[in-house]
Specification:
It contains 5 helices and 5 strands, in the order βββαβαβααα. The chain has 130 residues and is of the alpha/beta class.
């Protein structure tokens, strides 16, 4: 809370008075070296008296779809959650596989060579299908 006073000369005096032990913290967590949801939660070290805005970044090695739900179970103070992590695909290796996935990836990589302006959309199609 801020308590202030306007003095007769027009100056303003104010002071911050802490009325609660709660805090707000932004956490941007690179999950590239993390291998599981439980390892991620252990690394985060969430405190009960802190409200959080959490953002995941980096290459993921595990499914992050349920991370927000699990975080909210162990700590009710998650105000905002954003998952900007991504899987790192080795597309050249995948395109050499003699599977439907390999054939599809090879065709997409060829299409990217022929239409580089469509690269983002074509890569998104691989991400959805793989």
């Amino acid at each position: 809370m801020v308590i202030g006073e306007i003095l007769p000369n027009g100056e303003v005096e104010y002071e911050f008075v802490k009325v609660d032990d709660s805090r707000f913290e932004k956490k941007e967590i690179d999950i590239t070296s993390i291998n599981s949801v439980s390892e991620l939660i252990d690394k985060m070290q969430l405190e009960d008296n802190t409200f959080y805005k959490i953002k995941l970044i980096g290459e993921k090695k595990f499914d992050t779809n349920k991370v927000e739900e699990q975080l909210r179970i162990i700590n009710k103070n998650i105000c905002e959650f954003e998952d900007n992590s991504h899987y790192e695909y080795k597309l050249d290796e995948i395109s050499k596989e003699e599977t439907l996935k390999g054939i599809f990836t090879k065709k997409i990589l060829e299409e990217i060579e022929n239409n580089p302006e469509e690269k983002e959309n074509l890569l998104r199609s691989i991400g959805i299908c793989i």
